[in-house]
Amino acid sequence: xxxxxPVSISANQEEEINLIRQELLKAGISDPTAxxxxxxxxxxxxxxxxxxxxxxxxxxxxxxxxxxKYFKNIEDARKIASQGQEAIGNRVYGGRMGNAAxxxxxxxxxxxxxxxxxxxxxxxxxxxxxxxxxNPDLANDPTIAxxxxxxxxxxxxxxxxxxxxxxxxxxxxx
Length: 174
Description:
Blueprint: H1 11-26, H2 32-46, E1 51-52, H3 59-65, H4 67-70, H5 74-82, H6 85-93, E2 110-111, H7 118-128, H8 142-158, H9 166-173
Antiparallel strand pairs: 1-2
Helix pairs in contact: 1-8, 2-9, 3-5, 7-8
């Protein structure tokens, strides 16, 4: 919690934490502080449950989160929001991160770290030996989600991220 106060976790979460720690050890991430920081980040991102990013935004929230970079004005946000989650995903993620204009929703955030963008699905799928491009929903499979999260952290560490620094871990995930 950052305050030293104990954090309450369920038996399912405890099991998930142990499975993530096993993956961290396989990846050579054995420092207890680094492991704790990775686990804290995963708790913050997903509460240890792999899931898809919700694209259920009100027009007002779209403007707050994504602003005029992706929406001309509130009327534009209303129009896209009225078309549903796929339209929102395609607007905010389409045409970037390796996505075609109509692939933003397909490669929206998933898993324990909210892996986003076709480029990342390709990179981390290749690293763990799973074709996430053909089946991006596999990023929500608990075993695969753990492997992606650990591969992501391992790659961050290789790029110089100090996993023993909670701020650096948070910044690496975004």
